[in-house]
Amino acid sequence: MEMLSGATPPPRRLAAIRGIPTVCAVCVSVLCAAAATAQAQRPPRAVAVIDATAAPASDADVSDLAGRLEGQLERESDLVLVVSDRRFALVGAIPDDERPVLVEARAALGRARDALARFDSKAAVDSAGAAIDRLVSLTPTAEVTALIADLALVRGLAELGAGAAPEAGRSFGLVHRLAPERTLDPARYLPEVVAAFAAAGAAADMTTLDVTVPGGAEVWVDGADVGPAPASIQVAPGLHCVTITADRLVTQGELATVPASGASLTLEPVEASRTTLLQRQRRRLAAATDDATAAAAVSELLRMIGGQDAIVVGRDGDGQLVTRIYSGRGGWVGEPHPTEGRDVDTIIKPLRPIKPVAPPDDGDGKVVAPPPPPEPWYRRRWVQASIGGTVVAGLLTSVVIALTRDPGHSTVDMTGFP
């Protein structure tokens, strides 16, 4: 068999092919060096300590452990404690700003009832009305709604006793909207009072209440969530409790009078303080019933304070002191671990980066045994860089072969074929 001409590549093509290993080695070296440089220049992870108890009274054990963890983080070389001017919002008690308003409203209800018993209608109306105006700016919980209904009933009774039947009808109508099941006992109230209260709950033609909040918020009417603003709601004419809520806003509201022709109401939003926002997220964390919700609350807290990872300190269902690790890399929160028998160094350890272990020697500088791998081989940066280099080299090889191949020659003897 005679080899056809052109079967031997010219010298310049041989040189190009022989240079492929050198190109591959250079690519791998560059990638490895870049990975090593990135690893060395990576800043320490910013870690926050978060109290998950979120109670009006501080938990001494939780606060003490949180303080010791923060002290240890300040001494770490590969981790850094998130320094925040709102640290007090992350650890310790969360004041319940709404509870004092509720307590005062209940006291006002007692004063209004006492004034009603003395036939002092004006004092009863004033006490009940002032309390309603304060309560309508609280989060519309079942407790708040029921208390407003009690106050509106007392005010209606006082207005009816003072001869102000239309005003009494509006107050009684608000009671029916807040507490539809409410009735008056004929054995305790005069027939005309029972009749007036029942008449206020009779069906009426509906009208429209338009609520606007610049920037948007959630709108509540008479204790029910009616959706985001702007909202257009069909309501009965009369008094209505309108409240707006949002994660970023101060809760506020207004007692609106809606005529038969309808009404428009605009509430100006007030931005909540940064402390309030952090405390709201802590409450969400404390109320979380699953890991996904807890992780979302911690993630938002870290975003607000500029952190990456977190140590969550709290108590489990049995009241035992526990910690949980939140990883910003994966966005997950670990299982709760009891703190009994574990010091702060052990608790923080999962957050520390893995460092290479020096091989042991026999005293003369000779290695006794290779150290165990700090992590799986396929996760090592040099392996990942080598794989990347191999891919690059393969691509370069394909390009070189494509460029140096002579498509017009073959070493196959074609003379035996027709």
* Structural class by helix and strand composition: alpha+beta
Rg result: 37 Å
Inertia-based shape: elongated
N-to-C terminal Cα separation, in Å? 16 Å
CATH architecture of the largest domain: 3-Layer(aba) Sandwich
Q: How many strand elements?
A: 13
- Give the topology string: H per helix, E per strand: HHEHEHHHHHHEEEEEEEHHEEEEHH
Kindly identify the CATH topology of the largest domain.
Answer: Rossmann fold
Helix run count: 13
Poorly predicted ranges (pLDDT <50, ≥5 residues)?
A: 1-7, 34-40, 414-418
- Write down the overall mean pLDDT: 85
Fold blueprint:
Layout: H1 11-18, H2 20-41, E1 45-51, H3 60-74, E2 79-81, H4 87-90, H5 98-117, H6 121-135, H7 142-161, H8 165-178, H9 191-200, E3 207-212, E4 218-221, E5 224-228, E6 231-235, E7 238-245, E8 252-258, E9 263-266, H10 274-287, H11 291-305, E10 309-315, E11 321-327, E12 332-333, E13 337-338, H12 344-348, H13 381-404
Parallel strand pairs: 1-2, 1-10, 3-9
Antiparallel strand pairs: 3-6, 4-5, 4-7, 7-8, 10-11, 11-12, 11-13
Helix pairs in contact: 2-13, 5-6, 5-7, 6-7, 7-8, 8-9, 10-11
